Structure formats: structure tokens, C-alpha cells
Amino acid sequence: PPAHSHRDWIGPPDRLSNLRPVIFYVPPEESALERRLREARQEAQASNQRFWARHNRAFRQEKEEFIYSRLKAKGLEMRDESGQKATLNAEEMADFYKDFLSKNLKKHLQYNRDWYKRNFRITFLMGQVALVRALRWLRWRKKNVQQ
């Protein structure tokens, strides 16, 4: 982002995780509480990035293995006569999706628990930052009204 920017910047989707990375704006006079909030947001982003990159990599690999094994069982190759990649029908792929989700249920439950914990912490810190800013604004306004 340009040096004069005062906002977070959101990039294009990552090729592994499909998440859009965020470059967080750091104000020049960032308070300790604001820094804690920004760092909590950065940690949540990094954690999400790690989880979804691993998850998507495993998904793609297992999907390819599933397709290969099903095509092989049918006596087919990965590519047809015209060079097009061979595919399975929706019902066969539904079997894969169901099995993959069932096999990864515990990982998803743990991810969701962690996600809620992180977001609760972020929300709590955001509330604290908003309260501090509101009190600061009220003190500034009271001071300026008295003058």
C-alpha cells in the first residue's frame, strides 16, 4: 500500500487457501490496546491461512486420488481419446465429498472452536478500543466546549 494510506489493504485471493490476505494499517500513534487488536487480527488471519492452505491441498490431492482410483476401476485413463481430462459423474463425486467431510469432521470442529475463540477475543478488543476512543472524544469535546 502507498505510504499515505490510512486503511487496511486487501489483496487478491491466495492460490492455496483462497483467502484474501490483509495488510493491516499501523497508525503512527498506535496505542498498546490498538496494537493488541491488530496483532490478534493478524494472528487470526495467519491461522486461517495455514488451516485453509493445508485443507485445500489435502482436498485436491485426495480428490485426484479418488478420481484416479474410480477411473482405473472402470478401466479408463485420466485423459480420454481427445486429450480431455476424464471426469466422474455427480453421484460418484458426492461419495468423495461425503467421505472427505466425514473424515475431516474433527479438524473442522476444532477449527470452528478456535475461530470462535479468536473472533470473540477480537470483538472484545474492538469494543475496548471503541470505548477508549469514545471516551477520548468526549473528553476532547468537553475541553473544547469549555474554552
From TrEMBL:
The record gives the membrane topology as: Peripheral membrane protein
* Subcellular compartments: Mitochondrion inner membrane
Region forming the signal peptide: none
Q: Does the keyword Transit peptide apply?
A: yes
Q: What is the lineage of its organism?
A: Eukaryota, Metazoa, Chordata, Craniata, Vertebrata
- Source species, domain of life: Eukaryota
List, alphabetically, the Pfam families matched.
COA8
Organism, scientific name = Phainopepla nitens
Gene transcribed to yield this protein:
Apopt1
Q: What is its main location?
A: mitochondrion
One GO cellular component, as annotated = mitochondrial inner membrane
Sorted alphabetically, the keyword list is:
Membrane, Mitochondrion, Mitochondrion inner membrane, Transit peptide
Which family does this protein fall into? Answer: Belongs to the COA8 family.
> What is the protein's name according to its record?
APOP1 protein
